């Protein structure tokens, strides 16, 4: 394996070793011998990655990672001594900022984004919902094998797993009017999970949100105590509406609400933060 870096001093040797492990784990699934692959890794500032986005994607924005694949997966490389996968470009400035924002180390954020970039080189994508789920699952598997999976203190269930269950429920939503599909996964105190989706109606007032669907299912099965609820949507991060906040407060004045742009960048708030003065008779 050959990884070509544009910096002699960054990242440190220990991180480079983990990056080699990531390439090995990602390529083995594609039937490639990791000893016969090469790629380049560049670290740039926000202005440089913004220029690259504008030049190659017609997007005027700075992003955390870009991938430029050279391998399309259709060629037979059995007779070749080295397979060039392509280039991964990482923005350290954004990596450091996101690590602080999401509450984990810069090393973990770098390795996660590098995994994301390598999977793009190997043909993974997240444009369609099924592709996004497959890519996230693969990223999660790699991070777990590195010992860097994110668990939330005090929970027997990984909140990423709960979010993933909510994301998988999104496809079952009935939203012909708004087109905004939402899935929820509710964790009871006893450890059971109930999912729900938003169900719209021609009489808009009859529409029910995913969060309340999940609660109604759980309560109808005899549950009255809850620990957490994850919410995912077809449009990314989605916080519960005011009615749902009051509905949930009826059963739990301390409940973790989990949402985010994806399962690796989650935002967790207690119901009291979202509804400071919840009403109860």
What does this structure look like?
With 281 residues, the protein is of the alpha/beta class. It has helices spanning 13-29, 46-57, 92-102, 106-121, 129-145, 159-169, 210-220, 242-249, 271-274; strands at residues 2-5, 37-44, 65-69, 83-91, 182-188, 193-197, 226-233, 256-262, 265-270. The strands form two sheets. Strands 6-5-7-8-9 form a five-stranded mixed β-sheet. A four-stranded mixed β-sheet has the order 1-2-4-3. A hairpin with a 4-residue loop joins strand 5 (182-188) and strand 6 (193-197). Helix 3 (92-102) packs across helix 4 (106-121).
Helix-and-strand structural type: alpha/beta
**Spatial gap, N to C terminus:** 66 Å
Number of helices: 9
Low-confidence stretches: 151-156
Q: How much beta, percentage-wise?
A: 15-25%
Mean pLDDT: 87
Largest sheet: 5 strands, mixed
As a percent range, the share of helical residues equals: 25-40%
Number-wise, the strands total: 9
Shape verdict: elongated
Cα Rg: 21 Å
Written as H for each helix and E for each strand, in order along the chain, the element string is EHEHEEHHHHEEHEHEEH
As laid out across the biggest beta sheet, the strand order is 6-5-7-8-9
């Amino acid at each position: 394996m050959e990884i070509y870096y544009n910096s002699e001093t960054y990242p440190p040797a220990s991180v480079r070793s983990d990056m080699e492990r990531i390439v090995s784990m990602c390529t083995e699934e594609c039937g490639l011998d990791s000893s016969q692959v090469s790629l380049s890794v560049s670290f740039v500032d926000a202005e440089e990655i913004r220029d690259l986005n504008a030049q190659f994607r017609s997007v005027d924005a700075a992003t955390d990672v870009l991938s430029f694949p050279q391998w399309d997966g259709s060629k037979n490389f059995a007779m070749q001594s080295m397979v060039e996968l392509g280039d991964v470009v990482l923005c350290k400035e954004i990596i450091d900022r996101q690590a602080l924002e999401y509450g984990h180390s810069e090393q973990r954020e770098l390795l996660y984004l590098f995994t994301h970039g390598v999977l793009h080189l190997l043909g993974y994508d997240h444009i369609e919902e099924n592709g996004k789920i497959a890519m996230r699952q693969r990223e999660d598997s790699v991070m777990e094998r590195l010992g860097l999976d994110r668990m939330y203190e005090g929970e027997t269930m990984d909140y990423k797993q709960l979010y993933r269950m909510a994301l998988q429920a999104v496809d079952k939503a009935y939203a012909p009017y708004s087109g905004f599909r939402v899935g929820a996964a509710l964790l009871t105190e006893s450890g059971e999970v109930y999912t729900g989706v938003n169900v719209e109606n021609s009489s808009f007032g009859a529409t029910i949100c995913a969060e309340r669907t999940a609660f109604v299912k759980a309560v109808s099965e005899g549950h009255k105590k809850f620990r957490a609820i994850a919410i995912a949507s077809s449009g990314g991060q989605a916080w519960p509406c005011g009615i749902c906040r009051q509905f949930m407060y009826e059963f739990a004045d301390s409940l973790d609400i989990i949402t985010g742009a994806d399962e690796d960048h989650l935002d967790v708030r207690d119901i009291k933060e979202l509804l400071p003065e919840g009403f109860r008779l």
